[in-house]
Amino acid sequence: MRLVHLSDLHLGFRQFPRQTADGVNQREADVAATCARAITQVIACAPDVVLIGGDVFHHVRPSNTAILSGFALFARLRASLPDALIVMIAGNHDLPRTADAGCILQLFRQLNMHVVTGGTERIHDPARELSVLAVPFAPPAANANGDAVMERHYEADPRARFNVLLLHDDVRGVIPDAAQVGDRLHAPIDPVDLERSAWDYVGIGHYHVYRPITLSHTATARPVPCYYSGSLEYTSTNPWVELREEVQRNGSVAGQGKGFIEHNLLTGEHSFHPVAPARRLLDLPSIDASGKTAQELDALIASAIDTAGDTLDNAVVRLVVRNVTRHVVRTLDYAPLREVRRRTLHFQLDTRKPEAAGIATATGAPGRRATLRDRLAERLQQRALAPGLDRDRLVQLGLAYLTRAEEAAAAALPVAEA
Ligand SMILES: [Mn+2]
Fold first, then answer.
1. Could you list the residue range(s) of the whole structural domain that residue 98 is in?
2. Cα 13 to ligand 1 centroid, rounded to whole Å
3. How many CB atoms lie under 10 A from the CB of residue 402?
């Protein structure tokens, strides 16, 4: 009795201005390609059960391109695994704020999948003696003090031999409170709320890095296998935090930390299947500019780029320069960077003033924070447009202007005030 658990596909995620020959945002095409490869790998596993932990789409109202990618993926999954139980829950990215707007994931019910978008559902599979409690994302409510509150009472079905819990949630302690969004109610689930039943497997979506959660059943102290499978691609505004987590916490090779889980409910056998990303993400070794002149720093940057060689080609690259004053940043020679920007999909020279914690674009936890970029895209997606205006082009233009402004800001940070 084997299950596969994947999550956070974020089809329709867009980043950086470059487009494919077909006019699709390059990162959107990357995400679709990686998801397609992941589904091929899932099919090769031939599991009995497939759990999809939410955030299938990046936007509540995905583009036609994203919807078509999603339908092709899941139609292939269904056709290749005709007998598998497939359960999909909605994540926060999938759910419209008003119930009457409907949820696009319901489309996949046409494929004979269990799609749970509005409220908890228990799915029985008598042939497999299996019960899946499927809990889509639900926003917390505010109490009289304006604090976020949310009750969770998840119980296994005592009649079933195997009990699985699938949810899209924020487990307390996984994402630091400091990294949470200020303007959104936030009520993480306490791990003890997941320990009341002797679950055979708890699969969670939302956090973008593969992560086991240590749990034990309250009554019997038996360990409860509980995992975030992580996302399938680097689909947060700041992928560098994800890269670091994957390397430091999971021991992954840099940029190879994404994938899905295979878990045997009978034997407890567990494995993580890496899925190769569509392109390289490269966080070059940072440079300490303390006491360096602009010319010396130019040489260090040139040497970092030279060392990276052709690994830069078509990659998403960041080079952090620490402890650099505004004066030095202003007098750097940017001409050689133009060539690097042509070779890479995106090159970010991230200069940080002495003692500074970081720049505006470099904060937040993977997959959670609504950044300025997310908010701008969301507003532009929703605002009323004059007839004849192309919304996708408007969003792309807005994001491109924001990128330019961020790069200009990053290149001209004020010196620390005395
Ligand atoms: Mn997500």
1. 2-274
2. 10
3. 16
Please give the tally of structural domains in the chain: 2
Q: What is the DSSP letter of 415?
A: P
Q: How far is CA 369 from the centre of its chain?
A: 10
Measured CA to CA, the distance from residue 56 to residue 134 in angstroms comes to: 15
For residue 46, how far is its CA from the centre of ligand 1 (angstroms)? Answer: 25
CA dist., res. 217 & res. 199, Å (int): 8
The reply to whether 179 and 111 lie within a common domain is yes
Say if CB 122 and CB 157 are below 8 A apart: yes
Cα of 93 from ligand 1 centre, angstroms: 7
The per-residue pLDDT for range 188-201, each reduced to its tens digit, is: 999 999 999 999 99
CA of 133 to the centre of ligand 1 (A): 20
| pTM tops 0.85, yes or no | no
209 & 101 share domain? yes
DSSP for 219-267? TT--EE-EEE---SS--SS-HHHHHHHHHHTT-PPTT---EEEEEETTT
More confidently predicted of 354 and 230: 230
Q: How far does residue 129's CA lie from ligand 1's centre (Å)? A: 31
Check whether residue 268 and residue 298 sit in a common domain. Answer: no
Interval between CA 317 and ligand 1 midpoint (Å): 22
